[in-house]
Structure formats: structure tokens, C-alpha cells
Amino acid sequence: LYTSVVGDAISNLLEQAGATVHRVNFGGDVGLHVGKTLWAICRELGGEHPEKLATVPDDGRAEWMAKAYVAGTAAYEEDESARKEIIQLNKQVYQLQAAKDHNSNLAQIYWTCRQWSYDYFDAFYARIGSHFEKYYPESSVADTGLAVVKKQLANGVFKESDGAVIFAGDDHGLHNRVFITSEGLPTYEAKDVGLIMAKWQDYHFDLSVVITGNEQADYMAVVLKALEQFEPKLAAATRHLTHGMVKLADEKGSGSKMSSRKGNILRAVDVLEVAATANREQSGKDQPEVVLAAVKYAFLKQRLGGDIIYDPVESVSLTGNSGPYLQYAHARACSILAKAGKVTPKPSDDLEPAERALLRNLMMYNVVVGQAVVDLLPHSICTYLYELSQEFNRFYENNRVVDDPRASLRLALVRQYADTLKRGLTILGIEAPEHI
Which of helix, strand or coil describes residue 284? Predict the structure, then answer.
């Protein structure tokens, strides 16, 4: 959820600056995590019985697979015989992909559950107003990554170690990482190389922004350093941004690290649900657009990098620095314009001090957005919009707008204020309603 919200905001920023942006998503449909999940699924089904998948409820598929991943991970770490079976299953998944096998029992289970995953993500992204032009499954770039690493092994970029192929990151002040296992399979590292090559082939990008959690920072540094040895332009054009984890406010003192392997993560749908509950208790209504505004703004107003302590009650407040507050501010401005009726907003050079102060703030919008584009940090947009709304409040409290001799000029300022709020909220992926 955090990655998607940040990625959308950065994409919107770049688009507003005039760039052509391609939003793509990289997902792991092969690899050891798939082997672990598939092993537990087959245990749950009593063997390779794809017909038994029909017993899994449609609305419970994602959670069912997540529990299988947790169970498979525990077995891999604690049971040597299970570990060997999972390693073998991992190899079988690569083999059925290569053979384009959709008919064997194992293949039917694999492809069905893979599709369930995509269906779940499609529904979730639609729910939060996100979208992707293309999905890159790991399986689609694994062969490319494998071939590139093997080629560069011959060129001396990589080297063999205990039957595996590694990049000696310690030669560059980093750490060593395996790119091809002793089983001859590509690791995440090799597949990321394949992904970069595939994206270049498809888009010939000027800039590729990769967004992940902080735990991938050292990993990606090695991948890009390896890439730099044979494709320096692509490495230089790839920018890796990382962020922390999301925890609920009452968890901030727990000190425990959440892990999908242990099953103790805070799910995206959990965050949306606690926000919906908090908003329902405040407003007495179901307001999906307000809930999304609350969550997105709470994430985006903090500088990208650290953990997010999410307070659902604070996020839905109409009186603080929140998404719903800014939605309300926009709706209020629209209400003022509607109340003015037939009075035509007209700008003027004849400005009083309060009008000039508001206009000066409005004119800072392009400066703030421009710097946010350079930094790829959307939190400054949040800061600007909140401060702008505070400036408008001071103006409106002390200056009559409707039924005033200066109404046409002041309505022009209100119109520009409403438009500026809407443009900024749009960058953040937040709806700007005329009524709330």
C-alpha cells in the first residue's frame, strides 16, 4: 500500500512536469517463496489435487495463500526433509514454466494460484485508485537475467564460488551476492538484471525509478554496481528509492519487526479498514473517497525513508493536517464560489495586503512542485497545501468575499485557491470533491 501510494504520487509529479511515465510492476511468480507456498498448498490439498482448489472461497483466496506461505516458510526453516522437497518444487516450477506445462496436476495448481494472486492485486489497485500499464512476472525476465549473467561471467564481471555464480561486491565496498545458485537457477539478483534489460528494451527510458522497502537498499546497491560494470548507462539511469514500514499508532512501542514470513504483517486491507472504521465513527457515514484521502495523505505527508506510524483517528480528522481536511477546504472554496452566483471572478493589480499575501502563497505552487520533481519527494506538496489552506483561512476570516465591493477580485483568488488545491491533491492521488 505504501509503495503504491508513493509510486503513484511520484508518477503524477513527473507527469505534471511533462514527462511520459510508464507505470509497471514487478512480481515474484517464480522463486523459493513460490516453492514454499506451493509445498504448503499441496499439503493442504492432500497432494497434487487441483480439483480441490474449488473448495477455497473466492473472497478467501489471498489469505489462504498467505497462510500457505507462512506454513511453507516454517517447514523450510525447521524440517530438513521439507526443505529438500521445497527446493525440488522450486526447480519444478521453473521446469513447467520452460515447458509451458498447463496440464499436469502441479501445473494446474500453480497457474490457478498465480492467477488468483493477479486477480487480488488488480482488485486492490482498483480499490486505491492505482493502475499499472504492465506487469513483469519474474518468470518473464529470468531467462534474460540468466543469459546476461552467464555472458558477463565469461567477461569477468561475475565469478564462480562453490558452484554458484556471484558478484564480488566487497571489491566495491559492498558485499558479495549470488546471482546464479549452485542448482543453476537465477536468483532475485539475476532476475532484477533481466528486468532492467526488459524495461530498457520496452521503453528506452531516460529514468527508471524503482521503489521498494528499506530492507532492499543494500541488495539493490549490489545489483546496480554489477550492472554498472557492463551497462553503465542503464545503471546511471536507475534511481532506487526506499521507504520504511507502516505500523499502527498503538504498535509503535512494540519493537517487534513485522515479517510476511511469520505472518505478523499489517496488511494493506487492514489499514484501509481501520481508517474506514475511524471515519465512520466520526461522520456516521461510509465515505470511501475520504478514507483513501486519509490514508494516502497520512503516508505522503512524511518524508520518504523512515517508518510510518499511522494514526487512523488523526488521519480522518477534519481539523488537523489531514487529507480529509484538505478535501473539506476545497469543498468550502467551491461553496463560496457557488454562493457568489452570477458575480464573475476578475483578477486585478489593485491588491490589499491580505490579498497580496494569499496570492504570493498561490504563486509558490509551481516552485514547490518543481523542487518536488527534482527531489522525487511528494511530502513537500502536502506541506505546501496545508500551509496554503491555513493562509486562506486567515484571509477569509478577516475579509468578506461575497457581497463585498471587492468581490470579483476576491472570488478570483478563491477560484485560484480551489484550483491549486485540486491540482495538488490530484498529484497526491486524492479526490478533490466539491461537496463533502
Answer: coil
Report how far residue 295's alpha carbon sits from residue 272's, in angstroms, rounded to the nearest whole number: 7
Mean pLDDT per 10-residue interval, the chain, length 436 residues: 96 96 95 95 97 96 94 96 96 93 97 96 94 94 96 97 97 97 93 97 97 96 98 98 89 47 69 94 94 97 94 94 97 94 81 93 97 96 98 93 90 96 98 92
This prediction's pTM: 0.90
Residue 196, amino acid: I
CA Rg, the chain, in Å?
26
- Residues in Cβ contact with 247 at an 8 Å cutoff, skipping those fewer than 6 apart: 254, 258, 266, 307, 308, 309, 310
Q: Cα 168–169–170 angle (5° rounding)?
A: 90
**pLDDT digits 0-9 by tens, 69-111:** 999 999 999 999 999 999 999 999 999 999 999 999 999 999 9
Grid cell at residue 298:
497520512
- Torsion, Cα 142 147 148 151, to 10 degrees, reads 160
Let me know: does 304 contact 241? Beta carbons within 8 Å: yes
Stretch (H or E) spanning 135? strand 134-137
- Give CA–CA dist 323/317, Å, rounded: 8
How many other C-beta atoms are found inside a 10 Å radius of the C-beta of residue 81?
8
* 185: phi then psi, degrees, rounded to nearest 5: -100, 145
Contact 319, 325 (CB under 8 A): yes
Residue identified by cell 476570516 is: 397
With cell 527531489, the residue in question is 375
21, 145 Cβ separation under 8 angstroms: no
Any alpha helices (H) in 128-171, and if so which ranges?
138-154
Distance (Å) of CA 379 to CA 119, 163, 207, 313, 366: 31, 47, 21, 20, 15
In this structure, are residues 116 and 62 in contact, taking their beta carbons and an 8 Å threshold? yes
* Cell matching residue 102: 498447463
What are the CA-CA distances from residue 115 to residues 23, 59, 71, 137, 372 (Å)? 20, 14, 21, 12, 37
Task: Write out the three cell numbers for 117.
Answer: 494472486
- Residues with Cβ within 8 Å of 173's Cβ and at least 6 positions away in sequence, in order, are none
Query: Helical H runs in 29-79?
Result: 32-45, 61-78
